[in-house]
Amino acid sequence: MNLDGAENAKAEVFMQAFRYREVTRAAVDAAPTFAPLPGTQAHADILRARRERSFDPKEKIAVGILKNRSDDHGNSALKVGLFLQHKKLLHHPVVEAAQRIAKGEVEVRITGRVRHRGLVKAKPCRPLRMGHSVGHHRITAGTIGCFGIDRDGRVGILSNNHVLANTNRARVGDIILQPGRADGGRMQNADHHVAKLEAFVPIDFDPMASNLVDCAFARLDPGRDCVPNRIDGILADADGWDISDVEDLLIEQTPVKKVGRTTDLREGLVEAIDVDNIQVQMITGARPRFAMFNRQVVISGTGRPFSQGGDSGALICTQDGRPAALLFAGTESGGLNGHGITYANPIRSVLDALEIEIYTQVPGA
Predict the structure, then answer these.
(1) Total structural domains within the chain
(2) Exposed, middle or buried by CB within 10 Å (0-12, 13-18, 19+), for 314?
(3) Whole domain around residue 186: which residue ranges?
(4) Is 346 helix (H, G, I), strand (E, B) or coil?
(5) Calpha distance 330→114 (Å, rounded)
(6) Which of 18, 25, 88, 205 is most deeply packed, by most CB within 10 A?
(7) What is the Cα–Cα distance from 39 to 17, expressed in whole angstroms?
């Protein structure tokens, strides 16, 4: 299938196999997503799940667009991808219905549970650099994705909500530490105070909600310098970064790279784009909480995991250094090589949601 055919087949799977309807959400963009039809079993299942604080099995089946792994030619080798969080779902009626609807143009992947990428020790870095440890003063640690600039010309750190805003629990003005608390960052040490939370997009935990991003922006404190045009191991110079056509690049140019707090430089392959219905465990512990994400990018590592805990917030770039996505979650298994898969927000959705742009100017230039 070509891209249009794959998108149409994916929509048919949602509307016929899941019994979901197409819904336009304008919070970040006008692209369609899906919600269960009132009066259907899918709707009843989700209402029950809300009462029981658990999820129906259908909520552990994500659907996206991927390249046929057996075809190395052109852009027409696309399929509908089903990402199952447990092998027991292989014979679920939704999976069997999807295979009938897409007429053999379906590929199934077992992923394991999807969790945010929230931890290995890291060091302070001055000036601040992309790919290094950072975090709200009450979380463990995540990664500095890149540096952004808001409409008022204020420069700050771009990372995840669960890294900089403590998964909705922070307040604007809260202190951000570098390194993060798990790496020795301390509120008592003023040198570890590097920024203050400026904005974040709340994570919506309603089972029928559609989250598109997990992102936040923290304004640098006065006197804090950063290196905004260099990611160690990826870019010699990011001046002139162009993200206008990066979504098309992801399906055509699949190799990507990232530098994260835990795993440093890793290479991977884009496995799928526009993936919907991803149930992500955002809060762990005795009372875990899950959120549903749509329109995400799926990446597999080449030869080893692309990301691990603590890499949340890392900026993912194409081979030629274009910012592509913001890393926020992953699994320990599944993927093309069995090393787990990584989930990421398309970078344009992140920037639009926060109303910022990527900052690349060299200080003093």
Answers:
(1) 1
(2) buried
(3) 128-233
(4) strand
(5) 5
(6) 18
(7) 15
pLDDT tens digits for range 299-353: 998 889 999 989 999 999 988 788 999 999 998 887 777 888 999 999 999 999 9
Handedness of CA 60, 291, 330, 27 (dihedral sign): positive
Name the stretches of the chain with pLDDT < 50: 22-32, 46-47, 49-55, 74-75, 118-121, 236, 253, 363
**The token pair that represents 5 in the structure block:** 């055919």
Residue 136 backbone phi and psi in degrees, to 5: -55, 150
Helix (H) or strand (E) holding 63: strand 61-67
Q: What is the pLDDT of residue 117?
A: 56
Flag whether 1 is in a domain.
no
CATH number of the domain that 154 lies in?
A: 2.40.10.10
Distance between CA atoms of residues 302 and 71, nearest Å: 18
Looking at the domain assignment, is residue 191 inside a domain? yes
List Cβ<8 Å contacts ≥24 apart for 67-74. 67/251, 67/254, 67/271, 68/107, 69/107, 69/336
In a domain? residue 268: no
Asked if 310 contacts 182 with a C-beta cutoff of 8 angstroms, the reply is yes
Q: Which tokens hold the place of 165?
A: 């805003």
- How is residue 69 written in tokens? 């792994």
Domain assignment of residue 10, yes or no:
no
Q: What is the pLDDT at residue 8?
A: 82
> What counts of helices (H) and strands (E) characterise the chain?
6, 24
Q: Map residue 321 onto helix, strand or coil.
A: coil
* Residue whose token pair is 């950063």: 226
